[in-house]
Amino acid sequence: MSTESEYESTTAAPSGAARPGSEGPPAHLLLTVTMVLWGCAFASSKEVVGQVPHSVAAFLRFGGGALALLVALRLSADRRTRPGWRERGRAAMAGVLGVFVYNVCFFWGLSLAPAMDGSLIIPVLSPVLTSAFVLLAGRETASVGRVAGLVLGLAGAVVFFLGAGGAGGAGGAGGAAGGGGGRLAGDLLFLAAAACWAAFTLLGPRVLAGIEPLRATTYATVAGALLLGAYSAPDWGSTDWSGAGTGVWLNVLFLALGPAALANLLYYRGVKEVGPASASLMMFLVPAIGTLCAAVFLGESFTGTQSAGAGILVAGAVLAAARGRRGGRT
Questions:
Q1: N or C end of the chain, less CB within 10 A?
Q2: Which comes out higher in pLDDT, residue 50 or 275?
Q3: Residue 155 CB neighbour total at 10 angstroms
Q4: E strand or H helix at 202, and its extent?
């Protein structure tokens, strides 16, 4: 008899199946659109960070996203009873981690390292860390193949970071601002962002309990945006607003409406349908899109050592993810 693991069974329907009463596009289509938007966001965010301080860039992205979500919530035709303060509080706390802390690390990392590095580290290490957290919590079985994949993925990450430390400013026109040391520091911040996103993914089902995805997304984004506003306040006076051209504001508009508002809403819906472990697997679409955008629009590139580490990291992550899905059935 085929059964889901304890973890999947409490958070998701079987892969590819819709929940009873679910409406709208298939969950995996929603997640695919999400990953395309997030993949494009790395190069777009790098352009904004090049013109304004990273703290201000983070607030512009999610402050705008919060406003868009508040408007969408106001116009929503759903008139169900509003959630209680406990549900709102859970969503807001998720925003502290998944919006505020994540984006402090993400945009700070972008100010030091190429967008291409972030487009690999965050989406590939996030599912690796998600799997590691699930195994450590004892919610899924630790198969030999899965553990081997996790070890291989972490080894690839180490090689990648070693390559970043010796990059010496490599990375093309949009490369690291401060040479090898700056690039390594930025990559470590991307690693911290990946850990935040893994934890945020695992919180998804609990946050969505008793609250619709649009409200959960809005509460989380507003909470995170308020904290980003306070964090960025000291840098507003030193920002050269006159130097921010039309391209910067177009990027801010795209980041606020696409990756910040729409993508997070679709991600919540996807997590609700298929569960955090399955949703995290879709993150493997992001590196291809993000790397392509960074290469084409920013002229960035990996060093040779980084390329080798990236290959090992992706192979380990895919192995861990594949074995994890098989290990969840008996």
A1: N
A2: 50
A3: 14
A4: helix 179-208
